[in-house]
Amino acid sequence: MGILLLLCGASLIRTVNPGEPFVTLSSDPGYSTVTLENARRASLPGHPLLPLVPVVMALYGEPGDVSVSLAGFEPVRLPMPVEPASNLRPIGSDLPRTVRPDPSVYMSALDYPSDPLAAVSTGSLMGVTIVTALVSPWRYSPANGTLEMAGQITVTLEHTPEPPGRPLSSLQAATAQRRISAITGADPLPMPVGGHGITDYLIITGDSYLPVVQPLLDLQDERGLTAKAVGMSWVVMGFGGVRECVRWHYENEGTLFVLLAGDASIVPAEEFLVECEGLREKAPVDLYYACLDGDWDGDGDGVPGQPQDYPDLYPEVILGRALFSDYSGAQAFIDKTVVYTTAPPPGDWASTAVLNGGMLFPDIGYTGAKGCEEMASCFPDDWEIVRSYEFGVGDYPDTFFEPMAAGAGWNNHAGHGNNRGVYWATFASQIKVADQSLFLNGFRSGIHTSIACHPGDFTHPGTCLAKMLLHHADGGAVAAAMNTSWGWEGYWPELGPSEDMCNDMVRLVFQEHLPTLGEAVTTARDIQVPLTSGGYDRTFQSLLVFTAFMDPALSVLQVTSPPPPPPPVQVRVSLAGANPATSGQVLFDVDFTEGPVDLNVFDIAGRLVYSATLQNPGTTGWNCSGMPVGLYTAVARKGGYAGRARVTVLRP
Ligand SMILES: [Ca+2]
Ligand SMILES: [Ca+2]
């Protein structure tokens, strides 16, 4: 795809060459299938199913009118009429599939479509405006049986340029640049960098879990990330809720990573109506806590997350949730995360992938094996790939379970699903909650992904598959990316959004070497946003429900990423005395390359209890006599650069 980008005053012009179309006979007799690389087919049921080309632009400022011009039309050889879109069914559905050409198009003398601009969407990613024009480059005459495609698409975006807004931390800016390049396919915009994050990594958990998550805070120290944990009572009292707390930290403390530590009984979940192809249900949508622009209720009817609200789907933070509901589950998740990061067991397990491709829709031969093969091509060459593929009903090989239950670095489950598991076409299980006792893989706990419906539905009564995998103490998974509601297929032989997101995760981790698994899930979702075509379409719905159950800053084993550059100003604070402190005085060593530096001490709820300004590096004392017993955090800060230390104060 050739790309030319010009900046002309208040017009941004982008020219795209859509590439060569590919025409085959459809699996529906009497029709042709037309595909294009890097474009997804979409239309209303009954309308000609032709690829739409996303043209994406990033800018600082207010977007205005979008216009499209097409040039260089060439005829496309078409043996049969273009197939009409069928109704779609979620993965695992037994709804009948119907294909009925709409006479208002197929019996018309007019060309299709009447307007090449199929949809325009606007979003905001960490202060950058992202505008997508979804373009139909086709001129189809059902009456004459002719199809032409434009060789050149030119999209013009009028806009009012504005300077970049709020400065980002260097870590936030680097992530934003990678994500924007992945979405637009163009060079990144310059980002305004204001310093180092004061809280790169934020943990939100139940008050009584604050001491339990301490090893996760220590882990961030080892990673070179600043981190803190806040309890739900302060999240509610101090900020007004989870999303507001995340937003405040994103805006004021440079937060990039957020871990919601606990299931919905510990950190509440926001449930939204998801609807597609006539199916409706409520499902938890953690994406809402990560996308911080607007209130997600554009039409103001009090019901957020509807397509007519045009919610902004580009996250500002990389967010994951740890699914546990008791201390032993929390400990299991934390232990697996810490050991995976600091001392993973040796052996080939970490470079083994188990790929289960079930038969999804036997009537048209839609098997998960195709998506799995695409995923397989993204792993490094020296990985061992265990394939179990189902090409009819019930003919899958049963060689997958042993390597999966023994622990494998990556596991993908393509099949029918519910909250309790993922299944082959016969409803024999690929993996299910009831098999928990068979997972004895200990710290050989890898990553599990699934396109299936509902295995991540953590607000459904009972234990969902993602929770079993994460909170199981004897093994299971260190991380899972799964749907809280329906997963969606594509128009065969194309893959659907759920398959693309799972495959893009693997590609982004192992080919693009993204530094964290959380960024890979987030970027895999970002890439889908320009493909939403309006209404409760399957891409929109798939985006809402594909959820990261993981430490969002997890670095995937077998992947090396460059370390982040050191900050230009360095500030460190460490304890000069005993920890826990039992005298009435806590001594801090404060070291910095540029002063003056503010030293602040906060209690576990984030309240400021002590403040001092230091002109020179050295040792300074905090008189803590009379302070309640508990955990305190000292933050030494010069502008956007900060160091932190934790101290437990006991009674002398
Ligand atoms: Ca609404
Ligand atoms: Ca956003």
Q: Tags for this entry?
A:
3 domains, Rossmann fold, alpha+beta, 13 helices, Immunoglobulin-like, globular, 37 strands, binds calcium ion, 6-stranded mixed beta sheet
Roughly how many Å is the radius of gyration? 26 Å
Number of domains: 3
The distinct bound ligands, ions and cofactors come out as: calcium ion
What is the mean predicted local confidence, pLDDT?
A: 91
Amino-to-carboxy terminus distance:
70 Å
Give me the secondary-structure category. Answer: alpha+beta
What is the helix tally? 13
In the CATH scheme, the class of the largest domain would be Alpha Beta
Order of neighbouring strands in the sheet with most strands = 23-20-24-28-29-30
Could you characterize the architecture of this molecule?
- The protein contains 13 helices and 37 strands.
- By secondary structure, it is α+β, with helices and mostly antiparallel strands.
- It has three domains: 3-167, Immunoglobulin-like; 271-549, 3-Layer(aba) Sandwich (Rossmann fold); 571-649, Immunoglobulin-like.
- 50% of the residues are buried.
- Mean pLDDT is 91; it is low at 1-8.
- The structure holds calcium ion (2 copies).
- Residues 297, 299, 301, 303-304, 306, 309 line the site of one calcium ion (CA).
- One calcium ion is lined by residues 297, 299, 301, 303-304, 306, 309.
